[in-house]
Amino acid sequence: xxxxxxxxxxxxxxxxxxxxxxxxxxxxxxxxxxxxxxxxxxxxxxxxxxxxxxxxxxxxxxxxxxxxxxxxxxxxxxxxxxxxxxxxxxxxxxxxxxxxxxxxxxxxxxxxxxxxxxxxxxxxxxxxxxxxxxxxxxxxxxxxxxxxxxxxxxxxxxxxxxxxxxxxxxxxxxxxxxxxxxxxxxxxxxxxxxxxxxxxxxxxxxxxxxxxxxxxxxxxxxxxxxxxxxxxxxxxxxxxxxxxxxxxxxxxxxxxxxxxxxxxxxxxxxxxxxxxxxxxxxxxxxxxxxxxxxxxxxxxxxxxxxxxxxxxxxxxxxxxxxxxxxxxxxxxxxxxxxxxxxxxxxxxxxxxxxxxxxxxxxxxxxxxxxxxxxxxxxxxxxxxxxxxxxxxxxxxxxxxxxxxxxxxxxxxxxxxxxxxxxxxxxxxxxxxxxxxxxxxxxxxxxxxxxxxx
Length: 453
Fold this sequence. Notes:
The chain is mostly helical. It has 18 helices and four strands. A two-stranded antiparallel sheet has the order 1-2. A two-stranded antiparallel ribbon has the order 3-4. The chain is globular.
């Protein structure tokens, strides 16, 4: 199906480059003026569009990171300091080794392009955090929290606007977002001829599940949960991350209902439980009443939405009673094959080093971080990740770093259904926040070392 707006964007094909150029110029201005560019970097790492070079499509964050690196080399006269990433760089290096061994021994070595893309993605993880840490010297946790809060708040506002436009201008927005986020690794935006049901999110000229400024509703939902995790951190540790936390969390909940993803509805009670556990002495009747009123308002609001979407919302709410059923579409059940059942089967046939980041039997390499790691690098890759995060969690419990525990638990649980533990802007933001906090503690900056939860 050919549409006017699709043809229009394909002919000019410059919107993606304009966005990249705008953020590059804005970030350069901040850096050379000595101002904080991390807010801009946070926004771009999350909403970075794909760009086309010939017949190939690339994640533009690679070019953005390279540009930042050049700027920093110029600013520092060619001498870039070494910044400790608390074992994350080592983890990425081990993954590259295990990916390579698995690919060479058990994998499809003819598909070298897929292997190279995956390895570059791991390098990108380290480079993104590294340039963000180098681009501005955060001097206190107050400054760090303000930076993260402003960046996430801007992203929430941008996604509110995007969802409203997707609601009232669905065809135009689908064509625009198709140009921004269609790529070989994206399963959300695709050609109209490949859409055969409303469950994909867009069907017959309208959105039934909203994408925001993401390539899939699932990644959109993970972003919303991450923002709410920071709100929980704020209420738990008395850190001032968001200026208007109640408005922020209300917007995220409403957007989550528009996204309609299982990961969102399953993570809501997890965040609530963490809030209760860490705030037993501070929970007030006022907070409970606010939560009940907010829930009632949302239910009244969603009584007015489309019948099909309304049915889907309540179907997702059913998973709160049986969370394991939510994973049947991915991992399979007694009467159906899951989306990544084949991936897990291939991984278990090569348990030690996997088969590398390339499909060998047509299996889907997507969704669960743990299954993808097992497939790509075997038990060694999963074990390396386990050591990295267990070490952080033990340190959190020992030092009572409540902020880190909340963030890590949220990431690790969302990683069951999404691959955000392996790649992406949400991983970059989270580990940047953790690294700067730990760095400030190590330097004896004026920080709150132990949170009084």
